[in-house]
Description:
The structure is a homodimer. Chain A has 8 helices and 10 strands. By secondary structure, chain A is of the alpha/beta class. In chain A, the strands form 2 sheets. The first copy, chain A, has a 5-stranded parallel β-sheet with strand order 3-2-4-1-5, sandwiched between helices. Chain A has a 5-stranded mixed β-sheet with strand order 6-7-10-8-9. In chain A, a hairpin with a 7-residue loop joins β8 and β9 (206-211). At the A-B interface, α1, α4, β5, α5 and β6 of A face α1, α4, β5, α5 and β6 of B.
Amino acid sequence: xxxxxxxxxAGPGDPELLTLKALKALQMADVVVHDGLVSDEVLDMAxxxxxxxxxxxxxxxxxxxxxxxxxMLVAFAxxxxxxxxxKGGDPFIFGRGGExxxxxxxxxxxxxVVPGVTAALAASASAGAxxxxxxxxxxxxxxxGHAAKGEEPDLDWEALAKANxxxxxxxxxxxxxxIAARLMxxxxxxxxxxxxxENASRGDERRIATTLAELAGAxxxxxGPALLVVGEAMALAKAGGAPAxxxxxxxxxxxx
Amino acid sequence: xxxxxxxxxAGPGDPELLTLKALKALQMADVVVHDGLVSDEVLDMAxxxxxxxxxxxxxxxxxxxxxxxxxMLVAFAxxxxxxxxxKGGDPFIFGRGGExxxxxxxxxxxxxVVPGVTAALAASASAGAxxxxxxxxxxxxxxxGHAAKGEEPDLDWEALAKANxxxxxxxxxxxxxxIAARLMxxxxxxxxxxxxxENASRGDERRIATTLAELAGAxxxxxGPALLVVGEAMALAKAGGAPAxxxxxxxxxxxx
Lengths: 256, 256
């Protein structure tokens, strides 16, 4: 039997934000190759006998280069295994899933993609602030704040500085000061509402409602995975902690 | 006991793309107020005794105005009911969820938001074409192609015409010709890869891989809910039909 690779979005962190399809894929996995951001509760949904391999980039002694991960996925599939590549959020939003899919295609390995709830959706849901909104957010753009050390992200500041749109910056904590300065220099008002969400959807979620001018100061001291969200609709955001759990019902045979 | 409103994303169509949290919210619903795009398989996950109310805008003799929906949600919650407002995709991506949340806040009604897999994520997963990709898609923007009859969408064409980004147009089928013409006039190459996905993630999903120059012609004859996706990374897209189901395992107590 030929093995297959499943690129699966694990959602933003809360195990309840896994999709049913992701859960089913996990339950049939022979091997789970996962990021550091995927929680133990989610990993526990795979069969006990499934091999688990962390290729974490965060808080890890060893992290794998992307081409090592690609080769690993192909090699396991060629052994005839069902390989679940489990990624935080959605595999195709800043998850480098496209590179893994290309590696599978080049190797002739069957590969399927299971979408997931990307962190921006969880952050806006928790905050009660919509990413699009009549009159104040006609579009939403996702960018990454990641940049080589000492450099700044290569983004289209003019486009992102226009009013009436929401800009979500993934991995932007360490470059927040530069991003805010560039957006204001390009014309976005310092008074534009902004939101920082650390550990979106997790028990230790923290939300800070601020403004673009105050963004860099508000980001200081945060270290967890975080999103920066800038836009007029963030005026609706509520600061605070973790979102409400759905109680008291539990899905039979699924949770706990 | 005070009632509550849950703004719940039902995902793109495939019932398996519901999150566990959405499923739990549905299972405790006293009343489900849903869009026309939500499938019967999803509605069947609510208790048999739960009242179901369609406020469909599509294929419906009667459709409710937004302020009627807002009033309905508040009124049910004031009766002490658990009210699930079930929306296709994610409640805060072109779902007008922000307006419903504001109505609840103004009325003093407790309101929670459960994020969902928005259609763009499902479309890119099915097509095997990432929305962000090293070297060809450094950002992704979601806009709506919706416009008043005879008018064109009010979008920032200059920003959307820049290369190396993905633009996803929700509800853009009827305005596809104008959108493509505007993007090309603003400088986006006619050879830019494009993808149309009708009924993303459903059994009758259809994907057409094309280019920006050919987009309008390719959109002709389609009538279902569809996304237009324009960007260099769509060169990876595979045309075709519905995505693979996860077989043969089923989640105990959840599906079927």
